[in-house]
């Protein structure tokens, strides 16, 4: 089944734009793949080092060239709730590999930081760059050239995009991504948000706030709201990098362990040593990238992926632009409502039919390319299922339910929550920016108000606490881009802005920084590019300038004469406080190299 003409047209445009880069990438991939079993190019000394710590059986297997070896790249640490469940995964994978006649080794670990811990803290200024560090760290692990396939253990914000960039850089190897699953449901997300706003107003104390947060983030697994971490899992499944139905199964359950073992066996089955060789660099193509963008819009996913998907695509020689994302958003209906786009969490989404229902709806209505490569083979249709545990402890798959288990959470393409996607690209005399419209009520999508300019989120929070913001305004927070300070998320502003909106004020945020992947009910034009430090017009806005943010028409304008705006000089900001502390001094080179947000904000 072919996709709708509108989707085909965007895909064709991406393919043509990417032709030269893609051809060069595939030529490099074929050259790497042509080296046959890669351990055969290692000297005896190389190989002896590579399996010195293995048991006798694994050593014997790796001494030859005909037994497949899986390289495990893990982002395990036991501080991140989402990544703590990965601790036993390497042994499960090794056991499954041996049972299938192969070998598995941990090739390397990559860093994994938690944006939830670093929100509003200096460490957040390392967050975006951690994606590229992860890609490079994974490359170091795979550079030993010992492996016939790789499996990637990662869940959260920058971690999965970094791992995808690494996987595509080693595109001659098959790649299987193995999720850990979401924590069970705790305190409802809307109640957590209510307590945060009360704390911002000084109506509850820190003890009450910590109690609410602890009831929300209460155990192992991914946070249950639909931010970047869970958007990552959606993307890995809709792009065919997960095994079908595996994204949102809770950790530490028999089904989760069975899915992990199955994924290891699948990685062995698709190496060049077998008959179903599936190098990830050929498997992921322009259609796969478009499917990811469709899924992001159909679910109201994270704004962070307007950068990550661009960077991920570039790693495979594919040029994705914000204009492509905007055009797809104009044609794709929003059919999922998960907090902050609704009241449900990802467990409710999964129970309502989850990814299998979502993918089937989008395929059947022509929004997805069905004829894509996946690690499972046979296109995307095999992903229209639910994974269950069979009596013998293996995985069995059943067709996704014919109807949604909760129409308030998961709907159909024929009866969408809104006719267009969850993300919108805004254009105007400040450049381009992104807004997540799916979480913003229609009455708040057009804001015209005077600008109030700040150079840090701390400045704005101080003004709020001093009672200076009880009015209509558009907060312009600049010098928050990749070159300025690493583009931190400004999610700490959400409670204060929510309080002001609830008081009846017309409020919006405009910034060259980021908001959380769970950007909420206040309209926020983020990722403004070019950024202030790169000569962007956002650096010329002054207090009191009339501004208009129109998320319906897709515009962001400062309403002053073009000549006056052009004649102004860009503001200066003292960024000396961003240069040191919490490791920021180690990232000075990254800040200098960082690309624009609309080009992926990458350092390579």
Global mean pLDDT: 94
Radius of gyration: 24 Å
> How does the helix and strand content classify structurally?
alpha/beta
How many domains? The number is: 3
Number of strands: 14
Tell me the helix content. Answer: 25-40%
The biggest sheet, with number of strands, parallel, antiparallel or mixed sense and barrel status, is: 8 strands, mixed
Strand order of the largest sheet: 7-8-12-11-10-9-13-14
- pLDDT < 50 stretches: none
* Shape field: globular
| Total of DSSP H or I helical runs spanning 4+ residues | 22
Beta percentage is 5-15%
Distance between the terminal alpha carbons, to the nearest Å? 37 Å
Description:
The longest helix is centred in the first third of the chain and has 29 residues, at 5-33. The radius of gyration is 24 Å and the shape is globular. The chain contains 22 helices and 14 strands. It has 604 residues and is of the alpha/beta class. It has 3 domains: 5-34 and 68-184 and 219-399, no CATH class; 185-218, no CATH class; 423-599, Glucose Oxidase, domain 1 (3-Layer(bba) Sandwich). The protein has an 8-stranded mixed beta sheet with strand order 7-8-12-11-10-9-13-14. The chain has a 4-stranded parallel beta sheet with strand order 2-1-3-4, with helices on both faces. Helix 6 (127-142) packs parallel to helix 7. It starts with a helix and ends in an 11-residue tail after the last helix.
């Amino acid at each position: 089944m072919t996709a709708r003409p509108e989707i085909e047209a965007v895909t064709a445009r991406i393919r043509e734009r990417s032709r030269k880069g893609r051809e060069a990438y595939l030529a490099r991939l074929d050259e790497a793949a042509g080296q046959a079993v890669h351990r055969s190019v290692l000297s005896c000394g190389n190989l002896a080092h590579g399996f010195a710590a293995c048991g006798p059986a694994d050593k014997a297997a790796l001494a030859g060239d005909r037994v497949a070896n899986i390289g495990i790249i893990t982002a395990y640490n036991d501080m991140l709730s989402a990544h703590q469940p990965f601790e036993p995964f390497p042994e499960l994978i090794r056991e499954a590999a041996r049972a299938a006649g192969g070998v598995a080794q941990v090739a390397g670990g990559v860093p994994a930081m938690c944006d939830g811990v670093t929100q509003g803290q200096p460490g957040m200024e390392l967050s975006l760059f951690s994606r590229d560090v992860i890609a490079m760290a994974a490359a170091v692990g795979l550079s030993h050239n010992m492996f016939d396939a790789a499996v990637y253990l990662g869940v959260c914000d920058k971690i999965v995009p970094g791992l995808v960039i690494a996987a595509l850089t080693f595109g001659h190897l098959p790649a299987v991504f193995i999720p850990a699953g979401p924590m069970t449901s705790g305190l409802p997300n809307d109640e957590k948000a209510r307590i945060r706003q009360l704390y911002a107003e000084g109506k509850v104390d820190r003890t009450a706030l910590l109690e609410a947060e602890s009831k929300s983030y209460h155990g192992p697994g991914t946070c249950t709201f639909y931010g970047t971490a869970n958007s990552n899992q959606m993307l890995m499944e809709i792009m065919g990098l997960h095994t079908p139905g595996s994204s949102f199964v809770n950790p530490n359950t028999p089904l989760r362990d069975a899915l992990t073992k199955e994924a290891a066996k699948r990685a062995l089955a698709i190496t060049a040593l077998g008959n179903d060789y599936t190098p990830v660099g050929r498997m992921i193509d322009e259609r796969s990238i478009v499917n990811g963008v469709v899924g992001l819009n159909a679910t109201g996913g994270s704004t962070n992926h307007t950068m990550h998907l661009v960077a991920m695509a570039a790693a495979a020689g594919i040029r994705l632009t914000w204009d492509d994302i905007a055009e797809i958003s104009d044609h794709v209906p929003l059919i999922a409502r998960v907090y902050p786009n609704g009241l449900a969490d990802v467990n409710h989404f999964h129970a309502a039919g989850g990814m299998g229902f979502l993918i089937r709806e989008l395929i059947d209505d022509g929004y997805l390319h069905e004829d894509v490569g996946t690690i499972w083979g046979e296109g995307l249709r095999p992903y229209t299922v639910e994974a269950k545990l069979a009596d013998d402890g293996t995985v069995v798959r059943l067709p996704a339910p014919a109807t949604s288990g909760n129409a308030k959470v998961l709907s159909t393409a024929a009866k969408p929550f809104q006719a267009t996607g969850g993300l919108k690209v805004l254009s105007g005399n400040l450049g381009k920016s992104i807004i997540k419209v799916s979480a913003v009520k229609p009455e708040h999508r057009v804001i015209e108000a005077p600008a109030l300019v700040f150079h840090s989120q701390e400045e704005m929070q101080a003004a709020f606490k001093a009672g200076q913001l009880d009015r209509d305004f558009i907060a312009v927070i600049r010098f928050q881009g990749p070159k300025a300070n690493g583009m931190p998320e400004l999610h700490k502003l959400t409670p204060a802005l929510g309080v002001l909106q609830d008081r009846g004020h017309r409020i919006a945020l405009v910034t060259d920084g980021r908001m959380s992947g769970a950007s909420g009910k206040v309209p926020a034009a983020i990722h403004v590019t070019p950024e202030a430090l790169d000569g962007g017009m956002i650096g010329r806005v002054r207090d009191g300038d009339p501004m208009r943010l129109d998320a319906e028409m897709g515009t962001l304008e400062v309403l002053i004469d073009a000549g006056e705006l052009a004649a102004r000089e860009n503001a200066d900001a003292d960024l000396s406080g961003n240069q040191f502390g919490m490791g920021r001094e180690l990232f000075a080179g990254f800040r200098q190299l960082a690309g624009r947000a609309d080009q992926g904000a990458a350092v390579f």
